[in-house]
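name: query_chain
kind: protein
chains: 1
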Amino acid sequence: MRADLAVIGLSHLGLPLAQAATAAHLQTIGYDPDPHTVAELTAGSPPGGAGGGAAQPEPGAGPPSTAGLRRMLAGGFRATTDPAVLGRVRTAVICAPTPLGADRSLDLTAVGDAARTLAAHLRPHTTVLLESTVYPGTTEEFLRPILEAGSGLRAGRDFHLAYSPSRVDHGNRAFGYANTPKVIGDLTPACTEAAAACYGRFADKVVGARGPREAEAVKVLESTYRHVNIALVNEMAIFCHDIGVDLWDVVRCAETKPFGFQAFRPGPGVGGPGLAVDPGRTIGYPLRMVELAQEVNGRMPRYVTQRCATLLNEHGKSARGCCCSASATSPTSPTRQAPPPARSPPASRNWAPSSASTTRTSHTGACSAARCRAPSPRTRPPRTPI
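structure:
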């Protein structure tokens, strides 16, 4: 009997998808080459011990909790390291990780490995979807040749191929898979129909792009929008601190505007699954805004560390290490995009950094330590009565 869906890669992208599909009563199989991950899932424990006992209010809001995972198993979900199961599914979704390399380009190694594994078992009429963060052109120029060479089948004729950017927002209890529109970009109208039929079973709305490249560029735009706006508010945080302005009050007031503004909060950098993709790293078309945002956000760990040290010293606290507590929006906050821990020089005689100093970032860009306000460098004028 063929399963409805195979999720390839049971990480922060694959597990929420498998959870949403299982909740919608799709017969779902999860494939991962890591036996430890599969063993933990089979035992009803989220990989790495994440998730705790709290239940997710809606499938798709993030990696499943222990209770959520047990409901998945009761609903028929099973995880395996056996790639043979991929030959007995109607739809296969590749959710392999694409971490940033040393040069900040996306590493597609895991996507290639997943594609070769799938190609060896690919059957005619199967729908293949890619959800990993990739550059525009990856589906047609990287994934398609691997699938066709390994299977002897032709995409668009013998099997369906499409790209759909992942829109998982870990910890967001308002928007999950059901009420977040799914964008799909396909090779042919038949591919569009097949992909929409799959996603339409657990997503309220499916939006068709003109093709895979357009869908891939959607991910670039969405992640860059977030990255650039966090950089903007980070620069505003430094500017407002230097002139003695309360940024948090500025944001609070600004977000009352019902149009033309969306509130972002400053923090020690950018983390989480929403990688800012710089096309200049691979296809030779750099986006200047991305480069500037990376420059701004990359220096925030040191700035936040220095602010923490200054505040501790002003309150007479001696610290040997400073840890910026992450305002995590899920129990498993990814930090693969986060700037490296910063070791700053002593802010005053009381500040003595040690090898244990760490700075953790959240994928919202918010940091509780950053909200502490140092004394203003100037006397603030009295507030004008309204």
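note: The CA atoms of residues 127 and 160 lie 4 Å apart.
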